[in-house]
Amino acid sequence: MKKVYVNEERCLGCHLCEFYCSFAGGGETDMAKAFKLGRVVAPRVRIEESKDIYFAVQCRHCEDPLCVKSCIAGALTKKNGMVEIDKAKCVGCYTCVLVCPYGCIAPDKKSGGKTVTKCELCLNSAAGEPACVKGCPNKAIVYEERGEQ
Questions:
Q1: Mind listing the pLDDT tens digit for each residue in 4-21?
Q2: Do 37 and 86 sit in the same domain of this protein?
Q3: Are residues 42 and 88 in the same domain?
Q4: Deepest in the core among 11, 73, 80, 107, taking most CB within 10 A?
Q5: Which domain range does residue 41 map to?
Q6: pTM of the full predicted structure?
Q7: Is position 123 within any domain?
Q8: Which residue pairs from 93-98 have beta carbons closer than 8 angstroms and sit at least 24 positions apart in sequence?
């Protein structure tokens, strides 16, 4: 299965991936206009910094995901190698947020924190690849299939 990978040596820490992620699937065609209209910036990817190294953090769609095992409502499932959220089932208990070893699940700002959100690889978009990958100016984020390590 294809996944998002980050080459830390190429990441500039520009945060554009966060904006592309927030914009993806919003129905707007003009990013500048959408954000000027006060659209909630709620990316499912975030840039972390550690000693002058920048890297994007997003759901890793783990082989054996703790978030799925811990979800008391059954809102998180793994299908075709991808961890998905059924927002209608999510009760906002945040157990998945607490158990994710990568910190990739967060309260959903758009729902007022009543549900959670995470990267779902933009599979519902027509772009064919995640918005963060498409928008990365330095090609630090890639969407590819690699052997399991």
A1: 989 989 999 999 998 888
A2: no
A3: no
A4: 11
A5: 1-58+129-144
A6: 0.82
A7: no
A8: 95/70, 95/71, 96/67, 96/70, 96/71, 98/70
